[in-house]
């Protein structure tokens, strides 16, 4: 079965029978029309259609669940999953069938096995980036199917980076994606390293292809700077891991030996200073350094 069909199977599981595979992305992203696939899955015994009160309960609001529990003089405290379990235990099979007649698509044992063997399919869909994280890239780079989520994304980003060795705007984009994916998957160390690499590429002047001019270095409108978003994320990481400014600067310096740049607008020492001043909100000193760099261009 093709990865796209497996994706459709994954998305259909635990959906009510009113669910359809007619969303626009199927054609725009994957160039398929899967309207009849649900019938195919049921015929192939990958999906079954059954009544599933527990799924209907999951779709109810916490307010509704507490109202039902209160009517039965049961505890209303706890997480939603606990409320559902408590209410389901208090209702008879007949009550559940009458209250929740909705039927759902459920994976069969064969369908479950197929899904478990192809988790990467859902990940490529959820983290889709055309040409980088998609089924074509996975096939081209011979992506192993037994990797976990973080390793899958890193494999594809590494493969894309090999194709963009001298294309620094693309390298910057890939590094930003690495930060984004690492942050989303809770790999904060990797996220920090990627974030620092993004800053170094920015300050090196490698993101822009146009010739550098004096006007391009006007602070704070310049693009050759540490973006406010990066500053915010660094502060988030600092708070979460109780890191000092010195710790961040030291990590930034360490990355210079790992992530080598072909040229730099700001020297290594100037980059460290800009990072230190940014984290301590010393905008006046930052502006002065940019003015000095502007004067240097005129000489």
Automatic annotation (TrEMBL):
PROSITE patterns: SAP. Residues 57-91 form the SAP domain. InterPro entries: SAP_dom, SAP_dom_sf. SMART domains: SAP (SM00513). Pfam families: SAP. Coiled coil: none annotated. This is SAP domain-containing protein. It comes from Loigolactobacillus binensis.
